[in-house]
């Protein structure tokens, strides 16, 4: 059996699809299932059991001998939430307990870290274990992810294989329920559909033109391929960046979304809100050498190809939004 936590969410539900398509039907899916708006992400996907996240640990104590692997993708991901207790409970302590069980029961573990651990990128975006304690995340969400990474690297006893994946800006199907935390591509599509226009943040730095602020945008289908590679690989434990290795501008993102919708770009600029202006990231780009060094050789979707697949395959009128 393979366990997927956060299985009704964005990346978790997409991973269930990836596993099903690869022939893995004996899945145990874990989430907080009271939100009906997420449950449709699991429609037409095969699993043998659904577990509430609060019941996972007792279940593992009973059933661990039958578990081959765990993808821990469940977390509180709201970067605007300021209650550190929520993040300590759901992101830090929950993952520590799961790590302890994986160690005790010899179960390999892949878990979701985040590029939010890098803060403003003062030390760059290299997945080097030596800099983890020096990173300065910008919000409680990022700090909770970095706190766990620090803790994991300090452990003498570990699962037989583990990988913490520093997701950069993931976009793609099954994110429709995320509200403000959905990708910029999702929000761009919605804004264009409603108004025929897109407003981007103006640059407040002389070294960046308006709209040229950049992120490493990675299509969720690439994320799934990397995670499945690690499931098959199961060696070279550690932290890994998961982006494309190529930063792209918000102007490129918006322009390509217009084109995928069959429209000419109509882009204007508004001031970045003052409450986030001082901590706004102007550039992120994953150093992907470490993942490549352990044998992952697949190409990543370009921003153009990823947006076209996402918009035309899952968002355009009549599909809306179609679940992967």
Automatic annotation (TrEMBL):
Annotated signal sequence range: none
GO molecular function: ADP-glyceromanno-heptose 6-epimerase activity; NADP binding
Catalytic activity: ADP-D-glycero-beta-D-manno-heptose = ADP-L-glycero-beta-D-manno-heptose
Binding of NADP(+), residues: 10-11, 31-32, 38, 53, 73-77, 145, 170, 178
Obligatory cofactor(s): NADP(+)
Pathway the protein acts in: Nucleotide-sugar biosynthesis; ADP-L-glycero-beta-D-manno-heptose biosynthesis; ADP-L-glycero-beta-D-manno-heptose from D-glycero-beta-D-manno-heptose 7-phosphate: step 4/4
Record's cofactor remark: Binds 1 NADP(+) per subunit.
Domain NAD-dependent epimerase/dehydratase stretches: 2-243
Keyword NADP: yes
A biological-process GO annotation: carbohydrate metabolic process
Gene3D superfamilies the record matches: NAD(P)-binding Rossmann-like Domain, UDP-galactose 4-epimerase, domain 1
UniProt-listed Enzyme Commission number(s): 5.1.3.20
Protein residues bound to substrate: 169, 180, 187, 201-204, 215, 280
Keyword annotations from UniProtKB, A to Z: Carbohydrate metabolism, Isomerase, NADP
Pfam families: Epimerase
Residues at the catalytic site: 141 (proton acceptor), 178 (proton acceptor)
Similarity annotation: Belongs to the NAD(P)-dependent epimerase/dehydratase family. HldD subfamily.
Domains: entry comment: Contains a large N-terminal NADP-binding domain, and a smaller C-terminal substrate-binding domain.
Annotated HAMAP family: Heptose_epimerase
Subunit note: Homopentamer.
Cited function: Catalyzes the interconversion between ADP-D-glycero-beta-D-manno-heptose and ADP-L-glycero-beta-D-manno-heptose via an epimerization at carbon 6 of the heptose.
Name of this protein: ADP-L-glycero-D-manno-heptose-6-epimerase
Species whose genome carries this gene: Haliscomenobacter hydrossis (strain ATCC 27775 / DSM 1100 / LMG 10767 / O)
Encoding gene per record: hldD
């Amino acid at each position: 059996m393979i366990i997927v936590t956060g299985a009704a969410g964005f990346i978790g539900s997409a991973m269930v699809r990836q596993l099903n398509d690869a022939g893995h039907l004996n899945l145990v899916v874990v989430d907080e299932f009271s939100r009906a708006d997420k449950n449709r992400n699991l429609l037409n996907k095969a699993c043998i059991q659904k577990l509430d996240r609060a019941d996972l640990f007792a279940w593992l104590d009973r059933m661990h001998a039958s578990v081959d692997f765990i993808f821990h993708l469940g977390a509180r991901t709201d970067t605007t939430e300021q209650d550190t207790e929520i993040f300590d409970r759901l992101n830090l302590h929950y993952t520590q307990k799961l790590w302890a069980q994986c160690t005790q029961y010899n179960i390999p573990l892949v878990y979701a870290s985040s590029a939010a651990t890098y803060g403003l990128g003062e030390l760059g975006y290299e997945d080097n274990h030596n800099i983890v304690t020096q990173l300065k995340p910008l919000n409680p969400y990022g700090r909770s992810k970095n706190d766990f990474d620090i803790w994991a690297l300090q452990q003498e006893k570990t699962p037989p294989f583990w990988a913490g994946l520093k997701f950069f800006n993931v976009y793609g199907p099954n994110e429709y329920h995320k509200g403000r935390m959905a990708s910029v591509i999702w929000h761009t599509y919605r804004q264009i559909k409603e108004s025929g226009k897109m407003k981007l943040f103006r640059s407040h730095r002389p070294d960046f033109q308006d709209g040229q602020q950049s992120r490493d945008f990675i299509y969720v289908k690439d994320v799934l391929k990397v995670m499945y590679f690690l499931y098959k690989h199961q060696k070279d434990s550690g932290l890994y960046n998961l982006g494309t290795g190529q930063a792209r501008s918000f102007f490129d993102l918006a322009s390509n979304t217009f084109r995928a919708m069959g429209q000419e770009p109509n882009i204007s600029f508004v001031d970045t809100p003052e409450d986030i202006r001082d901590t706004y990231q102007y550039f992120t780009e994953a150093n992907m050498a470490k993942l490549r060094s352990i044998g992952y050789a697949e190409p990543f979707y370009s921003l153009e190809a990823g947006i076209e697949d996402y918009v035309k395959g899952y968002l355009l009128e009549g599909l809306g939004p179609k679940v992967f």
